[in-house]
Amino acid sequence: MAGTRLEHFLKSVGYPDRASGDSSPFTMRVDGMEIVAEESNGRIVLSYSLADDMSLVPALASYAAGRILREDAVLACGKSSAFLWQDAPSGSGERDMVRLFETFVDSCDWWRERVDVLRGGAATPDADDAMVIRP
After folding, report:
1. Which neighbouring-strand residues pair with 82?
2. Beta bridge partners of residue 132, listed in sequence order
3. pTM of the model
């Protein structure tokens, strides 16, 4: 049944809007971000576009090795953008879905701060104190 896992995910995390029928992918608006949730082969996959400026990719990539030790979100690049993604395997329960959502949003916040700094924005106090592991 199309959309069933996606609908379960949205309900699990308490998202106020509902997916209707075959609405995968579904765009969630969370803390000023647009996070895409979609069902793929029984898994829920979340993604967030970080930057359309490909010149930021080398700097972002320098953080990836250290972040992989700390989080499950993965930095990836498409043809014209850098994005984060994370998934929950098929068979994940409600608690797993909530954990996926919470950790992914936290990851998006961390990466979004780095993109803002790379674009010339001011670093937040937490960004200055954050431990960064680079290869």
Report:
1. 51, 77
2. none
3. 0.83
What are the b/e assignments for 55-73, b being 16+ CB within 10 Å?
ebeeebeebeeebeeebeb
Question: CB burial class (10 A; 0-12, 13-18, 19+) of residue 100?
Answer: buried
Strands (E), 1-135: 26-30, 33-40, 43-51, 74-77, 82-88
Residue 30, classed as helix, strand or coil, is strand
Using CA atoms, how far apart are residues 25 and 44, in angstroms rounded to an integer?
Answer: 10
pLDDT digits (tens, 9 = 90+) for 68-82: 888 999 999 988 899
Asked if 84 and 51 count as a contact pair (C-beta separation under 8 A), the reply is no
Q: What percent of the chain has pLDDT over 70?
A: 84
Residue 8 confidence class, pLDDT cut points 50, 70, 90: confident
Q: Is 112 left (phi over 0), alpha (psi -120 to 50) or beta?
A: alpha
Q: First and final CA of the chain: distance in angstroms?
A: 44
Query: 40 with 89: CB under 8 angstroms?
Result: no
